[in-house]
């Protein structure tokens, strides 16, 4: 076999660079599509950024992510729970969303899919205090029994797990911040705001409220 000429080697190298660039820009395109969808949800910047961080953390296929977020009755609360429970149960998030759309509570869904409450309390090795302390205490005493917990508290624990996992911090660190009045969404947004600069552009264009929690709740979100 004749050795390749320099021109052939250069052409191969150029093709490799093109392929590498194509791969490099493939993932951001999907992330950008998801971000574009979140711009139209009527959310504050903190909530919007938290959703995008959640999406990056679990990394569902772009088409799945955009279809799923559009179908969530309360996207800011539902989406993190759906992806957390999907990972824990090895079921598709769409399967879990169908149960949610049938008006099941989150604790009912966990029970039906045999998801251990441990997924909500990972890294919490002592009483976290209100509003999660009562549920944590019951789980510690009855780890195999069904956990009954309000939707809003389960959503809070799911967001806590997403933030702790994404930023590799102890859940107790986030709980301490929460006790100071810092929401989980704000904690995450402050660490990722530069990653999603289009949030500022969106506000200038009038897409969505500028204040956190500006969007109106809808659907059967937190109790």
Short description, anyone?
By secondary structure, the chain is mainly alpha-helical. Helices cover 64% and strands 0% of the residues.
Contiguous low-pLDDT stretches (5 residues minimum) are: 1-28, 199-223
Residue fraction in strands: under 5%
Helix/strand/pairing category: mainly alpha
Number of helices, counting only DSSP H or I runs of 4 residues or more = 12
Indicate the mean pLDDT: 82
Key structural traits:
single chain, 223 residues, mainly alpha, 12 helices
Fold and architecture overview:
With 223 residues, this protein is mainly α. Helix content is 64%, strand content 0%. The longest helix is centred in the first third of the chain and has 33 residues, at 6-38. 34% of the residues are buried.
Topology:
Elements: H1 6-38, H2 45-58, H3 62-71, H4 75-89, H5 93-101, H6 106-112, H7 118-121, H8 133-141, H9 151-167, H10 171-179, H11 184-192, H12 198-204
Helix pairs in contact: 1-2, 1-3, 2-4, 2-11, 4-5, 4-9, 9-11
């Amino acid at each position: 076999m004749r050795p390749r000429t320099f021109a052939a080697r250069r052409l191969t190298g150029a093709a490799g660079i093109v392929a590498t660039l194509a791969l490099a820009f493939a993932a951001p395109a999907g992330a950008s599509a998801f971000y574009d969808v979140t711009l139209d949800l009527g959310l504050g910047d903190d909530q919007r950024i938290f959703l995008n961080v959640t999406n990056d953390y679990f990394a569902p296929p772009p088409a799945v992510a955009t279809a799923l977020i559009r179908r969530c009755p309360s996207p800011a609360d539902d989406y993190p729970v759906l992806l957390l429970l999907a990972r824990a149960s090895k079921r598709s998030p769409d399967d879990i969303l169908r149960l949610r759309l049938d008006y099941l509570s989150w604790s009912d869904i966990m029970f039906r899919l045999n998801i251990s409450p441990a997924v909500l309390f990972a890294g919490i090795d002592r009483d976290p205090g209100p509003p999660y302390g009562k549920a944590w205490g019951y789980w510690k005493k009855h780890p195999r029994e069904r956990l009954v917990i309000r939707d809003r508290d389960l959503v809070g624990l799911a967001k806590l797990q997403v933030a702790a996992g994404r930023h590799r911090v102890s859940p107790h660190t986030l709980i301490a911040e929460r006790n100071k009045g810092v929401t989980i969404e704000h904690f995450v947004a402050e660490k990722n705001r530069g990653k999603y600069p289009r949030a500022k552009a969106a506000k200038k264009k009038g897409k969505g409220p500028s204040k956190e929690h500006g969007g109106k709740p809808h659907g059967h979100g937190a109790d």
